[in-house]
Amino acid sequence: MTTTDLIPTGLPAVDALLGGGLPIGRLTLVSGRSQSGMTTMLDTIACQAIRQQTPTVLADLESPTRVRMTRLSAALSGVPFTDIRDDSLTAEQRAAIRTGDRPGAPFWFADDVRTIDDLSWQLGVDGIAARLALVDGTRLLLDGGMPRIMLGLDKLAASANVAVVATLPVHWLPDFPDGDLPVSAMWAAGAVLWLHRRHSDEATVTVTGTGPLASGSATIAADFTRARFLPLTTDPVTS
């Protein structure tokens, strides 16, 4: 697999564990307990894609589009989410938001997605084909049980030649044993990013999967008020 087949997450330590980035043509699963930062991980990946002009579609089955747009604006600009939401911005913050915006970046929201077929119809816009599809709220897809949904997303990734990244809380994985990565998370995913929120400003990402992946863990900085993860200064990786 070459670097052209991989999409960076924006977190070098995580990319190293993924063999260079998110694999195009495969499903990558982001899993963890509630409040572990699964949505924030998707926001972080989305911002990196926007900065690199990677054609990206985001399907959020749980939050209104305006809320997700505000989260992305916070992550791109570094302005707290609540300040943008409440429109209580200083002149300096407004300037930061303008600087953070990437006009013309090939990024769009998939509306009214309830099935994998719905998502597949929205993998392109204005003649631009997505290279990255982000799915938040996978449990709400109406495609049957979770094994069928994950197999369907992985099949979509392969047929559309797109990297699919989807969130799934661990309580939706039936064989999740405390302390271990759920075996069922590997039904179809090429890789699983298992998130553990250690502190309010730090999280651990454990990566497991197939192919050129180096199973191990990375510690990253968490900035939840700005809807983003960041590399630590040392960006440590442990095997």
Structure description:
This protein is an alpha/beta fold and 239 residues long. It has a single domain, classed as P-loop containing nucleotide triphosphate hydrolases (Rossmann fold). 28% of the residues lie in helices and 27% in strands. It is built from 7 helices and 14 strands. It has helices at residues 12-17, 38-51, 65-77, 81-85, 91-100, 116-120, 146-160; strands at residues 6-7, 22-23, 27-32, 56-60, 107-109, 124-125, 128-129, 132-136, 163-169, 191-199, 202-209, 216-223, 228-231, 237-238. Strands 3, 4, 5, 8, 9, 10, 11, 12, 13 and 14 form a 10-stranded mixed sheet that branches. The two termini are 22 Å apart.
Task: Give me a quick take on this structure.
This protein has about 240 residues and is α/β, with parallel strands linked by helices. It is built from 7 helices and 14 strands.
Search tags:
239 residues; alpha/beta; Rossmann fold; 10-stranded mixed β-sheet; two-stranded antiparallel ribbon; 7 helices; 14 strands; 27% strand
* CATH architecture tag: 3-Layer(aba) Sandwich
CATH topology: Rossmann fold
CA radius of gyration? 17 Å
The number of helical segments is 7
Q: Indicate how many domains the architecture comprises.
A: 1
Going by CATH, what is the homologous superfamily?
P-loop containing nucleotide triphosphate hydrolases
Approximately how much helix is present in the residues? 25-40%
The CATH C-level class name: Alpha Beta
Largest sheet composition: 10 strands, mixed
Low-confidence stretches: none
Question: Proportion of β residues?
Answer: 25-35%
Distance between the termini: 22 Å
Topology as H/E string? EHEEHEHHHEHEEEHEEEEEE
Mean pLDDT, all residues: 87
For the secondary structure, the number of strands is: 14
Structural class: alpha/beta
Shape: globular
